[in-house]
Design goal:
This protein is of the alpha/beta class. Helix content is about 30%, strand content about 30%. It is globular and about 40 Å long.
């Protein structure tokens, strides 16, 4: 994991890809993290949020900038990024409870249900950063089971060798009644938003752009929201 200082904080790079943007104050990262945060905020899942995969906590600054004040329950197999996050961020980060562990085991061990769950797990493979097998097979059903009935799940999808985008979306989003896919003009990621009831793709697009624009995120004009890939 390589650490690069920026004028706003620290950028973490692994496998040639940026895995986190850690800011010293709340605000936009101008990246996929802003959309992960915006999806949670605009869908009003509630105050209890689980974050599966932390890296350097890139989603925290945009979440707080958008007014999300709830507690973050976080799990990751590696705490290097979390230590950097603690050193760069300030008291504005709010309640962030970090635990070392495997995401599935951790999620099963938690009492009660979550209002929102962000799945942001990744591994470095021969072709760069990709998703671990658990993210596209077993984890989505578990995530659904640990959500409140009106809760929302937000998945940060990356290309996986041997899988097409429609196959990935079907495998991850299949357990949920409704899903929306956010694509980007500047990033290969797709963000899958899933839950029991969701606004239309057009309504979600408008809401996401408004939330992103409100914090000055440069990614606001670089997204498209669809019902299918």
């Amino acid at each position: 994991m390589k650490r690069v200082l920026t004028r706003r904080g620290v950028r973490l790079i692994e496998g040639g890809a940026v895995i986190s943007e850690i800011l010293s104050v709340p605000g936009p990262t101008d990246s996929v993290f802003d959309v992960l945060a915006a999806a949670v905020v605009v869908l009003h899942g509630g105050p209890r949020l689980a974050l599966l995969g932390f890296a350097g906590g890139g989603v925290v600054a945009p979440l707080r900038a958008m007014g999300f004040n709830g507690a973050l329950d976080v799990v990751d197999l590696d705490d290097r990024g979390e230590r950097i996050f603690r050193s760069v961020s300030g008291a504005w980060r709010g309640p962030v409870s970090f635990e070392l562990g495997e995401a599935s085991e951790w999620l099963r061990s938690k009492r009660g249900k979550f209002d929102s769950i962000i799945e942001d797990l990744s591994v470095v493979g021969p072709r760069g950063v990709t998703k671990p097998d658990v993210s596209v097979r077993a984890l989505p059903r578990l995530v659904k089971s640990r959500l409140n009935p009106r809760g929302v799940a937000v998945f940060n999808l990356l290309p996986v060798k041997g899988w097409t985008w429609p196959e990935l979306v079907e495998s991850v989003g299949g357990p949920f009644r409704e899903r929306r896919i956010v694509s980007f003009t500047e990033f290969e990621n797709r963000v899958l938003v899933a839950g029991r009831t969701l606004p239309s793709a057009r309504q979600l697009s408008v809401a996401l752009r408004e939330a992103l624009g409100a914090i000055g995120s440069k990614i606001a004009d670089g997204i498209a929201v669809r019902t299918s890939v």
